[in-house]
Amino acid sequence: MSEDAPEPSFEERTRRFGEFVDRATREGKDWHEAVKDSPFAVASPPENEDPPVIADQPGAREALSHHLRFSGEHQYDLVLAWAAQPYLRAVLPDECCVNLAFSGPRSSGKTKATEIAVRLAEGEMLGGGTLAAIIRTFDKAGVVGIDELDSNLKRVEDLEGILRVGNTWSAVYKISKPMKGGWVPADLQVGGPKAFNYRSDIEDALKSRCYVLEMPRQNDSRLIINNLFLANPTDRVTAWLKRICGEKVKAWSKAKVEAHMKNSAFIARLDALPAALARNRETAAIFLMIADILGWDLDTEMRQAVEVQADEETANEDAKEILAALYREKAEPPGSDLELPQSDVLGWVNERLKDRRAYPLSPKAFARVRRECGFQDGVNVIKRRREGGKRFLIFDASVRETLGLEPERADNTGAYGLVPSPDVPLALDSLGDSILDDIEDRIRQIAQRDPKRPDSWVARDLILAFQLPETMRAELEARIPEMRGRME
Fold first, then answer.
1. 192, 169 contact by CB (below 8 A)
2. Global pTM value
3. Is the Cβ–Cβ distance between 74 and 301 less than 8 Å?
4. Which tens digit of pLDDT belongs to each residue from 350-400?
5. Domains of the chain
6. Could you give the CA distance from residue 234 to residue 310 in angstroms, rounded to a whole number?
């Protein structure tokens, strides 16, 4: 480059840097060494170098594509529509509120995607895995982001309840705040959109309250460098989004929005979507209404999004029916635990899905089905050393119940003439001595931290920590005093 040539812009330096590092790593060089060797220094943009102003929806989508990597272009529009909710709050009915979730393998950018979505909506990321952090965040934010939801659900017993009730704008969650001398009841405002990410599948009831974006694994050097400077491009898109929402909202009111959604033409657009379940259409209805307020045409994008959800729902239900059929065919005697190699089960399921003219399940998709059926690593998914480390699935009582193979436990006990004792509940004892010991250890830990914690709150903590069925709550509460007594 000649001395008279102009200095390349920040964006041009970033592009050249990414190309250099990508080429070097493909040739076998260590990524960190390639960064050091790059002749294209990438620092923060010069103060006098203003980025281009976002002018329209394609420009916003293009700006986001430098920081987020989705499998479909329509997903950028859905992120923008989700982030518009707080700016349209004045005309959105209380029930028109939708959550956004990012799912995918490690290194797919789920955390960055959550942060960017929350920045676009001028929300707050949850700053810690404690009840105090939740209270602080929800007290000051209308939009909340949660990183690693699956891990936080295990640490914070109230978080699941907040997400279950918080999918309206005016939602209130009852909490107990610690005060001197004990606990006092309080109302926590938890309404408004939430964005979160998870790696292990979350409970179906939580997934039904949000739209899930699946993110592919990525290792793009240019994307990595761009994300070192989040504030600059994100603020540009946020400013554009706020501006157009402020302009468009003037032509609408809550009454007009409600009338628009009840109109037969709007309902016909919903009916045209291939939603497998009513909750898919509920989410779609909110996105379509936001798009109509903004003057965007998202019908095609929404069809693509709902098709993905519908295919997943249909495949999951088919797989569960096949798993139930496999148990009926192979269990001897009926009603006993059945142990089968996981790889064989996946093969059998895919053979029968093929017979139904359905797409086969990938290992990741099958892992999602497994979790929904109640298979848990270390509990009823185990590795057999004598089988070379092969994983086996155990169709135990909880899995059979989920698959509809057994009646509820209350019916079971009556059928055998057994009356459940409040002191020795059958379902709790069926967990085995090892898990019961772990439960007592956790009760001991809770008692040391907070001796006055009510038994009902301890039971809720145990259900979340050990992923126990909700039907065990009453039995746990009845058993906790006895377990506390053995610790004294």
1. yes
2. 0.62
3. yes
4. 998 888 777 788 787 788 788 778 887 778 888 887 888 889 999 998 889
5. 1-50 (no CATH), 57-297 (3.40.50), 310-402 (1.10.10), 418-487 (no CATH)
6. 31
